[in-house]
């Protein structure tokens, strides 16, 4: 039945990613999706383009280090056809946390590896290994260490999160991040936690999150977004009302809420975004090339408009 449904599917596809830094990789991925490329390939193209790029200090190579000056990465992956998941947490010296997470999803067991064991598995699997701390990231670290004031929770981190519906009807979601700047050694955020940082089910939709993992995990927000899609909410409503409601709940219960942003796409290729901060994201589909948008929270959820030159303050 699933195959028949897939054959009947049009070649409609949608790709959505967190933050402006994803734009270049999105353009590469969309060329592939036009030629019947898979959602998995699209995720890998977008995420590895960001991981490799030393201009971005929140993901992969040149990511900002933890309190002791070491770059520790988190990454996650889920395929919505098979519900396969793969994830790595707190892994060092791996060029692509996403590729390693995806590789973990190919194993029958041991889908979520952390620390030394994850790095050993990367080496055994022939993954590219490298020093991730660049001179520039080290300088940012040294400067920050010399400052007396405590680090604000939303300084120096942005996860690349991607959701894709491909032309064959497969949904997938993936993430990669160096996590919070100056995090404690061993700290793992939401990005590799299935249901919090990412979720995908090809019968419903896919979602991915960015922001302060300690908040996102309190609401299992990616799973909750997909659950709301299953209830029939349209993606924009599902994502924006979820983030707005959850932000209010955190404030009610805890007196404050840190940054949370969420992207999602449903099985029809409709997309949605929710955020409680100014947040940039990139979308493309079979009719529209990759374009950067900005979402800002308002009373009902958030407003969305095209990114322009006045938006230099948002990553
Ligand atoms: C984390 N959620 O490690 C990640 C960081 C992030 O935008 O996404 N920042 O908590």
From TrEMBL:
Keywords: Autocatalytic cleavage, Hydrolase, Protease. Substrate binds at residues 187-190, 210-213. The keyword Hydrolase applies. GO terms for molecular function: hydrolase activity, acting on carbon-nitrogen (but not peptide) bonds, in linear amides; peptidase activity. The keyword Transmembrane helix does not apply. One of its GO terms (biological process) is proteolysis. The active site is at 159 (nucleophile). One of its GO terms (cellular component) is cytoplasm. The record marks 158-159 as: Cleavage. PANTHER family: L-ASPARAGINASE, N(4)-(BETA-N-ACETYLGLUCOSAMINYL)-L-ASPARAGINASE. This is N(4)-(Beta-N-acetylglucosaminyl)-L-asparaginase.
